[in-house]
């Protein structure tokens, strides 16, 4: 099978390897689609290289067809269409045992070398534990199925924020997760959804996927005034930060209403300065959100019902041989890609 091995920044090598054998409790999946995540792009450019060390096969956003099953697997059979949950969880820790497997004490990710060096899905076949698969509804394509992980994150961040009927929700950052969170906030009952980004092109897509108001945050003070004026001077009920920079978190707490919630999902760096007094004296709830648990099944159900639209978000598709083109498209200055999917088969 063909595999795209990450050799060094800006370079992949397409190599031939034996198709792995599904061991006990494992399923061999023929990979039809694998998305490129922002967390893959930084190491590609040489940043955060410990997350994707050279020699690794990247890819944690994947969907495909069951090719064969190992001993003891009864839930899946050859030909089943599946989406991959890339968060390998242990089933033993207290969080797994209480259903919060996105918080698993022993979690690691496929296509990552952060905790454990584990190859991912930028190759033709992937062997994975049977518990990591979700059934892909018949009317959901593989490219859409590969969006399980970013969409799961988007669903969770909206649920963590407790978005309710009539709320005004501002989403900072219009990458794939932000653009799905805009749609999810609407499903949750938001009365007004405000998209905030520095990119007018991304704001254009935000409008197409359902944002009521799109604000360019190039001028942060005027963005704050805009959000306040849209909410009778109060500020938004819930702010979702899917960008993750000091200025977006500052804008988030400044434009959140008193007693409102700021949900933190994005992180451009591990430590961020933001105006703490805004948080304290406005009694803002600051909430973290990571990965997804029960949201996985929800995403597939909502995709199947056509309630989440990904056609404007999946902007590029490339065969495995052209993986470098896909990555290069994503880092092009002023480039137009949001989500690029690699199709290995
Ligand atoms: Zn990802
Ligand atoms: Zn666990």
From TrEMBL:
**UniProt keyword ATP-binding, yes or no:** no
Q: Which cofactor does it need?
A: Zn(2+)
Q: Does the keyword Lipid metabolism apply?
A: no
The Enoyl reductase (ER) domain extends over: 7-342
Query: One short Pfam family name for this protein?
Result: ADH_zinc_N
Query: What is a single molecular function from GO for this protein?
Result: zinc ion binding
- What keywords are assigned to this protein? Metal-binding, Oxidoreductase, Zinc
Q: Which InterPro entries match?
A: ADH-like_C, ADH-like_N, ADH_Zn_CS, ER, GroES-like_sf, NAD(P)-bd_dom_sf, Zn_alcohol_dh
Please give the family membership noted in the entry.
Belongs to the zinc-containing alcohol dehydrogenase family.
Protein name in UniProt: L-iditol 2-dehydrogenase
Query: What species is this protein from?
Result: Anaerobacterium chartisolvens
Upper lineage: Bacteria, Bacillati, Bacillota, Clostridia, Eubacteriales
